[in-house]
Specification:
By secondary structure, this protein is an alpha/beta fold. The chain has 2 domains: 8-133 and 260-328, Bordetella uptake gene, domain 1 (D-Maltodextrin-Binding Protein, domain 2), CATH 3.40.190.150; 134-233, Periplasmic binding protein-like II (D-Maltodextrin-Binding Protein, domain 2). It contains 11 helices and 11 strands. Strands 1, 2, 3, 4, 5, 6, 7, 8, 9, 10 and 11 form an 11-stranded mixed β-sheet that branches. Helix 2 packs across helix 9 (272-286) and helix 4 packs parallel to helix 11 (307-328). The longest helix is centred in the last third of the chain and has 22 residues, at 307-328. The chain is globular and about 65 Å long. 46% of the residues are buried. It holds the Pfam family TctC. Keywords: Receptor. InterPro entries: BUG (IPR005064), Bug_dom1 (IPR042100).
Length: 333
């Protein structure tokens, strides 16, 4: 059930050879108190280099420093993150397999996919919120001659054949954000899904794709270089790392607050003592000034929470994402 073929593995601390088997942990209460007693793997259900991967690695470094042991990142992308999370829920519930889940796993995929091999309410246990970040509306500076969101709307409406907007995949928050934005403004638009921002950005820089409303973390460096122009942020207020960029409301598109957030999860029957130990560590890490600074530089905000707060967040957002999926017309098998 735990197929590792094609998985990208990277070791954060020594002591594990890529592809080596990870022993099963079946410890007593004393062993639970000593967790981690062996290698901990964090499954990132998206490709290397994206926002989830980058931010998970920062947290994994700090967890290793606080809790000891060897921590390994596994990139297991595919099916909107479903493949990676399936790997989590099918793993032994011993605290040595963690999933870096996103809003898609809590509030989107169950409405997007006709069939799913796991249930977000039954098959994994939340541990703690880990971060949130806004999406940013961006255009390639050399190919789209606009400076503001209002100018872009006017330009896009007049463009023969309409525009192309990119995202890291059907049903992702960038796809749904782009669909909602273009529909609301009556823009003729074609969605172009990629495997991640690392593929979307080159297409935009070539002029093949005109627009994206994608995770700020993935675009921060390219915005700072001047190759992309940020038009608006989808947060409720201006973002600290881009204080000159208006919110969507300030730019003329009200009621458009969309943040991409994440949480760590473990298999459902993981001992509560381990969940609590990991949750407390993540909450403390989220308050470290050095972590806040590293997150801010890439356009994100570290978060920590109780497991119950993660559940409440996911349930509260489901109606909004369900409506956005309906507007987009997205549906996957």
């Amino acid at each position: 059930m735990d197929d590792r073929k094609g998985v990208t593995r990277r070791v954060l601390a020594g002591g594990l050879v890529a592809g080596a088997a990870i022993p099963v942990f079946r410890g007593s209460a004393n062993a639970q108190a000593a967790w981690p007693s062996q290698t901990v793997r964090i499954i990132v259900p998206y490709p290397p280099g994206g926002s989830t991967d980058v931010l998970t690695r920062i947290l994994a470094e700090r967890l290793k420093d606080r809790l000891g042991g060897t921590w390994v990142i596994e990139n297991r992308p595919g099916a909107g993150g479903n493949i990676g999370i399936e790997g989590v829920v099918r793993s032994d519930p011993d605290g040595h397999t963690i999933g870096s889940a996103t809003v898609g796993h809590f509030a989107i995929n169950q409405y997007l996919y006709a069939r799913m091999s796991w249930d977000p309410d039954k098959d994994f246990a939340p541990v703690s919120m880990t971060w949130d970040l806004p999406n940013v509306a961006v255009v390639p500076s050399d190919h789209v001659p606009v400076k503001t969101l209002a100018e872009f709307i006017d330009w896009a409406k007049k463009k023969d054949g309409g525009i192309f907007y990119g995202s890291p995949g059907v049903g992702t928050s960038p796809h749904l954000s782009g669909a909602m934005f273009t529909t609301r403004h009556g823009i003729k638009a074609t969605h172009v899904p990629f495997r991640g921002a690392s593929a979307t950005i080159p297409a935009m820089l070539k002029g093949d794709v005109h627009f994206a409303i994608d995770n700020l973390t993935s675009y921060m460096s390219i915005i700072e270089s001047g190759q992309m122009r940020a038009l608006a942020i989808t947060a409720a207020s201006r973002w600290p790392s881009l204080p000159a960029i208006p919110t969507m409301a300030e730019a003329g598109t009200p009621d458009f607050v969309v943040t991409s957030w994440a949480a760590f999860v473990v298999p459902r029957k993981t001992p509560q003592a381990i969940i609590d130990k990991l949750s407390v560590a993540l909450r403390e890490i989220s308050q470290e000034p050095s972590v806040k600074d590293r997150f801010d530089k890439v356009g994100a905000r570290p978060l920590g929470s109780t497991p119950d707060e993660v559940t409440k967040k996911g349930v509260a957002e489901r109606p909004m994402w369900q409506e956005m999926i309906k507007v987009s017309g997205a549906r996957l098998e």
